[in-house]
Sequence to fold (461 residues):
Amino acid sequence: MANDFRTGKVWQNIIAQSIPLILAQFVQLLYNVVDRVYLGHMPGDSSMALTGVGLAFPLTTLIAAFTNLFGTGGAPLFSIARGAGNEERARKIQGNTFSLLLGSSVLIFALCFLFREPVLYLFGASDASYVYADAYLKIYLLGTPFVMLATGLNGFINAQGFPRMGMVTMLIGAGLNLVLDPIFIFVFHWGVSGAAVATVISQMVSALWVLWFLMGKRVIVPLQKKDMKVEAGLTREIMSLGMAGFIMQGTNCLVQVACNATLKIYGGDLYVGTMTIINSVRDILSLPVSGLTSGSQPVLGYDFGAKRYDRIRQGIRFTAFLGIAYTLLAWLVVITSPKALLSIFTSEQAFLEAGVGALKLYFFGFFFMAFQFSGQSTFTALGYSKQAIFFSLLRKAFIVVPLTLLLPRLGLGVDGVFVAEPISNAIGGLACFLTMYFTVYRRLGREPRIENGKGRRKERS
Fold:
C-alpha cells in the first residue's frame, strides 16, 4: 500500500511527516505573525495597533478551537481507520469533518460579528484600543469559513502521506499574506484593516487549494459529496477525540482573556501590547516541538490500528527526547537574546523595556512544555480522548488561569501574570507525561485497546 507507515524506521516516518508539517505550521503562523511585525513597525500608532490586535486574539483562538474540535478529531480517527484497512469508514470520517467545519464556521462568524463590541470590552479593551481591535476583527471574521476549512482539512492531506502538499497549502496563503500586508498597510494606508484584508484573502486561497487537492485524483481517499452527510455516531466520535484540541485552544482563549483583563488593571495598554509580542515569540519558539508531536500522530495512529505496539513505543521515545532537547535550546535563546526576539515585533523603547523581564519570566523552564506536547499528542493519536481532555483542562483552566488572577493580587503585579505560565508548564506538563507513560506506554499491547477506531474496548488475546 502506498504511504504505508508500517514500513521504514519509525523515527524516519515521524521526521518525514514532521518536517513538512513544521514548515506548513510556520507558514501558517506567518498569517498572524507577519501582521504583528508590520503593525509593530508602523509609523505613528504602532503600540495601540499591536494592543488592538492582541485584544482580538481570544476570538481568533476560539475559531481555532472549533477547527480543532473537528479537524484534530477527524484526522486521527481517519488514520486509525486506514491502518485497520477500513477505507469506507475513513471516507465518511473525512466527509463528515468537512460538513462540520463548514456549518460551524458560519454560525461562529455570525455570533462573533454581532457581539464583538461587548466581547472586546470584556476582554480588556479601553476606548482607545477598541477602535483598532474592532477595525481588525470585523474584517478578520469574514474569513472564518476559509480558515476553518483550510486548517481543519489539511490534516487529512498529511494523514494520507502527503505532508509536502499540506505544506503547499500554507505556503500559498502565507506567500500572499506576506506580499499583500505591506501593500494594504503602508501603500494603501489601511493600517490594521489592511492587515485583516490581506489575511482573509490568503485564507480563502488556502481553503480553495485544500478542497481542490482532496477532491482530486492523487489522494488515496478523496473527499466526495456522498460522504458529507452528517452522521450522529461519527460526529460524536469526531467531537469526542477532537475535544482535547478544542479544550486546549479554548483554554488558550480563556488564558488570553484572563491575561489581558488583568494586565489592563495592573499595567494598562502597554502591557496588553507587550503580552501580544510575547505570545508571538512563544508561537514561533513552540512551533517545532508542536509540529514534531503533531507529525507523530498519523504514524502512531496508523501503527495503533495495525497493532504494531513496539513501533508506537519507539515513536513516543523519539518525539519526547527530541522535544525536550529542542525546548532546552529555545530556553537558552530566550535567556541570552530577549531584546533581539522582541525587536522582531517592535522598535518602540517602552515595549522593549517592559518586555525583556517579562519574556524571561514567561519562558522560565520552557522545556517542561515538551512533556505536555508529547503526552498530549500520544493520548490523541491513540484515541484516549478522556485523558487528552483532562490534561488540556488541567494545565490551562485549573492552574494557569487561577494563578494569572491570583498572583498579581498577592503583590506580584504584572510579574504575576508572566510567572503563572512556567508554573503551569512544570506541573501540568509532568503530570500529563507521567500519566501517559504509566497508563499507556508501559501497557501497550497488554491493556484493552480501541477496536477499529470505534471506541469499543477489547482485551488482547
User: Anything to note?
Assistant: Residues 10-445 form one domain. The longest helix spans residues 46-83.
